[in-house]
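QA checklist item 7 of 12: single-chain prediction sanity check.
[x] sequence parsed
[x] length recorded as 65
[x] structure emitted
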Amino acid sequence: METSIPMTTLAVREVLFSPEEYVTWCTEQHRAIFGARRADIEGFGRHLEALGNRSGQRGWPGSGT
Protein backbone atom coordinates (compact mmCIF):
# COMPACT_ATOMS: atom_id res chain seq x y z
CA MET A 1 0.00 0.00 0.00
CA GLU A 2 1.40 3.32 -1.07
CA THR A 3 0.89 6.39 1.11
CA SER A 4 0.65 9.71 -0.66
CA ILE A 5 1.77 12.87 0.99
CA PRO A 6 -0.21 15.97 0.00
CA MET A 7 1.82 18.73 -1.59
CA THR A 8 1.71 22.09 0.13
CA THR A 9 2.54 25.40 -1.45
CA LEU A 10 4.51 27.76 0.71
CA ALA A 11 4.17 31.45 0.00
CA VAL A 12 7.31 33.36 0.86
CA ARG A 13 6.92 37.04 1.60
CA GLU A 14 9.61 39.27 0.19
CA VAL A 15 11.16 41.69 2.66
CA LEU A 16 9.96 45.15 1.67
CA PHE A 17 12.15 47.09 4.07
CA SER A 18 14.19 46.37 7.14
CA PRO A 19 12.94 47.33 10.58
CA GLU A 20 16.11 49.40 10.95
CA GLU A 21 15.04 51.60 8.02
CA TYR A 22 11.72 52.33 9.71
CA VAL A 23 13.31 53.00 13.11
CA THR A 24 15.83 55.36 11.52
CA TRP A 25 13.11 57.22 9.63
CA CYS A 26 10.94 57.53 12.77
CA THR A 27 13.90 58.91 14.72
CA GLU A 28 14.73 61.45 12.00
CA GLN A 29 11.07 62.54 11.77
CA HIS A 30 10.62 62.63 15.58
CA ARG A 31 7.85 60.01 15.41
CA ALA A 32 7.12 57.38 18.03
CA ILE A 33 7.96 53.98 16.55
CA PHE A 34 4.86 52.23 17.88
CA GLY A 35 2.69 55.33 17.82
CA ALA A 36 2.68 55.85 14.07
CA ARG A 37 -0.51 57.04 12.45
CA ARG A 38 -1.60 56.25 8.92
CA ALA A 39 -0.21 59.58 7.72
CA ASP A 40 3.16 58.68 9.24
CA ILE A 41 3.23 55.31 7.46
CA GLU A 42 2.27 56.97 4.17
CA GLY A 43 5.10 59.45 4.72
CA PHE A 44 7.48 56.53 5.20
CA GLY A 45 6.21 55.06 1.93
CA ARG A 46 6.92 58.32 0.13
CA HIS A 47 10.40 58.29 1.69
CA LEU A 48 10.99 54.80 0.24
CA GLU A 49 9.75 55.94 -3.17
CA ALA A 50 12.14 58.90 -3.09
CA LEU A 51 15.01 56.50 -2.36
CA GLY A 52 13.97 54.29 -5.26
CA ASN A 53 13.37 51.38 -2.91
CA ARG A 54 11.71 48.40 -4.58
CA SER A 55 8.86 48.43 -2.07
CA GLY A 56 8.08 52.07 -2.79
CA GLN A 57 7.89 51.37 -6.51
CA ARG A 58 5.55 48.44 -6.07
CA GLY A 59 2.69 50.42 -4.56
CA TRP A 60 0.64 49.74 -1.47
CA PRO A 61 -1.30 46.49 -1.08
CA GLY A 62 -4.79 46.87 -2.49
CA SER A 63 -3.92 50.00 -4.44
CA GLY A 64 -3.97 48.18 -7.77
CA THR A 65 -0.45 49.35 -8.68
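[x] summary fact logged: Residues 38-51 form the longest helix (14 residues).
[ ] second reviewer sign-off
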